[in-house]
Amino acid sequence: MRLATALALLAAPALAQEDYTDAPCGGDFRAFLDGVAGEAVAAGQDPATVEAFLAPLRLDESVLAADRRQGVFQRDFIDFSRRLISQNRLDTGRAMAERHDAIFDRIEAEYGVPRGVLLAFWAFETDYGQVQGDFNTANALATLAHDCRRPGLFRPQLIAAAELFAQGGMDHQTTGAWAGEIGMVQMLPADILESGIDGDGDGVVSLKTSVADALLSGGHMLANLGWRAGEPWLVEVTVPADLDWMATGLNHPRTVADWQALGVAGRAGPLPRTDLPARVLLPMGRNGPAFLAYPNFDVYFEWNQSLVYVTTAAYFATRLEGAPVYAAGTPAPGLSGDEMMELQRRLEARGHDVGGVDGILGEKTREAVQAEQLRLGLPADAWPTRELLGAL
Questions:
Q1: What pTM did the predictor assign?
Q2: Which of 320, 353, 372 is the last residue of a domain?
Q3: Minimal CB count within 10 Å: which of 169, 184, 254, 353?
Q4: Are 25 and 151 in contact (CB under 8 A)?
């Protein structure tokens, strides 16, 4: 399986709704759908249309299988980014930017989202529209809403899908990613209802077939998620060897000017917007690549929850905007998936919340690693090594 296809199948969305852990789930599927119907009708939807949407739905075991497979995100940043960012993807992205220049100009004028940002999502989500997923969207959403792992995330999307069905925005043949995303930039039903744009003026929002509709809708969604026009999102930096590593990480913001005073510098030129807050992000520790993450970087987590995906997408956007290849450095070897899970178990045993034992180095695991590195007298750069695993 091509990695692009794997990403389309595996990348879980970061849904805007609050995660209600007590949302109704499980049990008899038809009874479950009756409950969804009642909630949709109570929200103002037409009973007959809701019934017409829900009646044919079926559980899809392949969706649950895809939801459980997350191994691709166990890769480290250098490996992951090198696999996703090919010369072909760069060349195609630049060609797409030129071909659809007027669309990107409109997006930048109306929503303040740079073309590189949308091009990166377009590339990673569907390979510029070529790999949009072949899961039945309505069945996928019903399956994930019924499943008791994350019902509070997917139940609102199933109800939104009923409304999108009523508006003619999807039908029972609509296909997409396993988690219910539709179209070239993979948007969920609630996001389509809120942010969908008829970019080509044909009276229909067609995210699967219209480049203008897909890109403008994606730009509108990013703006609605809090994208700040005219501000950077990620800038590669160099860091001094004596930096206080405990000050690094996404939970430790300082102004860019303060970071400069500590010796942090732009690798490819002066750092932009020294007045803004930013965080030093070391995806593979103090000896690997280094970045400053600005407030716009946080918007990426509203699109996807994987730290390695988010960092790679944000970096690829800077490449498409003209940034050079990052300096890989000489980071210490990382842990295997099994070793990472063992580390997470040991961190949990010490009282840390790592966000679950999944073998994936997310921000919660990084924070726990940093705390234990500090306790053990190791450089607290949040990069887990076999030395740390042995010490725990």
A1: 0.91
A2: 320
A3: 353
A4: yes
